[in-house]
């Protein structure tokens, strides 16, 4: 009986939500000094607002408001914004989206409705994407791809195989990208034979055979 209760508690999606909440709270606590410094830098560089808000499409194709540190002004990237985008620190406020339940630590990219329409991802064959919450990180984000076919294949791979151990690996890889650099980590992923590396290899092969090849020239926005 005891083992059954534990299995139910730690089975998805409960274990994933627990991982999200604990990670988001821990992230807010750990990065609070960094977030305070970023807010001050933005204010000193070009004033308010500090945060950027935008409607994105999430679980069940419901829209929610994503929160980021503002990195642009009048259509151009600011000095502080260039640093934030290069390091991914502009996304730290999304811990609040995770706590609110709009996002997960790991999942597909959160897209705008216009991106969904432009990419044709409102078609039924992409319904898999809306069965999970969008993520702060994920296979497509770790690889840094803006290719719509590859992103769709990586998202499909993740949704089909999502589990807590995979989420932990994705988070670790995300930190590795920030610490070691995108190029080094992605080269390692392409050489890998298991885990996230398999995702990349599988998606790369699947791209040539899947319906997504018809949108090969399309790119995903930030």
The strands making up the biggest β-sheet line up spatially as 1-2
What is the residue-mean pLDDT, rounded to a whole number?
83
Strand content: 5-15%
Query: How many runs of DSSP E, i.e. beta strands?
Result: 6
Number of helices: 10
Largest sheet: 2 strands, antiparallel
Poorly predicted spans: 5-10, 199-217
Shape: globular
**N- to C-terminal distance:** 47 Å
* CA-atom Rg in angstroms: 18 Å
The helical percent reads: 55-70%
Write up what this structure looks like.
The chain is mainly α and 222 residues long. Helices cover 55% and strands 11% of the residues. It has ten helices and six strands. The chain has helices at residues 2-9, 14-46, 79-87, 94-100, 113-119, 139-143, 148-161, 164-180, 182-191, 195-207, and strands spanning 51-57, 63-69, 72-73, 76-77, 104-106, 135-137. The strands form three sheets. Strands 1-2 form a two-stranded antiparallel sheet. A two-stranded antiparallel ribbon has the order 3-4. A two-stranded parallel sheet has the order 5-6. α8 (164-180) crosses α9 (182-191). The longest helix has 33 residues, at 14-46. The chain is globular, with a radius of gyration of 18 Å.
